[in-house]
TrEMBL record:
Biased composition (Polar residues): 1-20
Protein name: Plastid lipid-associated protein/fibrillin conserved domain-containing protein
Pfam families (alphabetical): PAP_fibrillin
Principal location class: plastid
Segments of skewed composition (Low complexity): 38-84
Organism from which the protein derives: Tetradesmus obliquus
Location of the region described as Disordered in the Swiss-Prot/TrEMBL record: 1-84
GO CC terms, sorted: plastid
Key words of the record: Plastid
Lineage: Eukaryota, Viridiplantae, Chlorophyta, core chlorophytes, Chlorophyceae
Amino acid sequence: MLKSVKSSNKSTLLASSRPSVQRARLVRPASAETDAASVTYTSSSNGASSNGASASTAAAATSTVAAPAPQPSTPSSSSSSSSSSSVVTSIKLQLLELVAALDRGRLAGHADKEAVERLVASLEGSGAGLQPFGGTPAPVEGRWELLYTNKEVFRASPFFAAFQGGLVQSKELAEAIFAFTDAIPGADILSAHQTVSLLSGSLISEVGMRVWPGFSGTVVTSSRLSVASPTRLDLAVEKTRVAGSSFGPFLDNVAVPVEQLITQLRGEGAAAASYEVTFVDAQLRVTRAGDQLLLHRRVV
């Protein structure tokens, strides 16, 4: 009997000192259409708690966690605009990196020209830079440096477009003359710039040249310009002269009246050229003159 009592006391002692076991039951909302997604956890005890609390009191202890309902995600116009801007920036960086090694196109092979054309086409198709003549000042205004052309570099001047279309009036003959000019030994193009002003209606082209054995100077061509369409400029090439020549001020004072001469030979309006501005922003301008591609970077 003494052994039985000891066994009973031992069982009671173990039961009272054993920690209560907590179990969690997940209670789901009754309706799937509830505005806020709520999860309720109910805690219950199968035995007496260590501090003597009753099972009914422990079972009543509940904890509820409520999370806000997820909101539908809709792309904002600002994020879409930012994405488009990033694409344009990426294309421009690739284009600038490519033409930097081509000496304004003089070192470009067939594959290089195709790669430049693809990037330019992507830039034109981006939908950016499509209002070159809007605002004050217009994006096209300013001084621009030639970065690349798919023709001979000296042909960046509109004088040669007027020469081909107005004077020679034969693309094949003009191409032969230009190829001969480009092959003159020792000839080098030092720089090529354009200054565009819609306010004064003028485009000034400057092409710096050095020709062996020691002649150098800048060929300056002045043209009137007018806005013909939302993307097109019409030019009338007025005159051309050499500035800063190594032959001194005598040659600098000589201006060739291009428009007057071509008009006398070919008629009114023959000394004309057209520029299609297909992309322009604060840094870069893409211009097409027939099959000629011109890529300029803003200087001022």
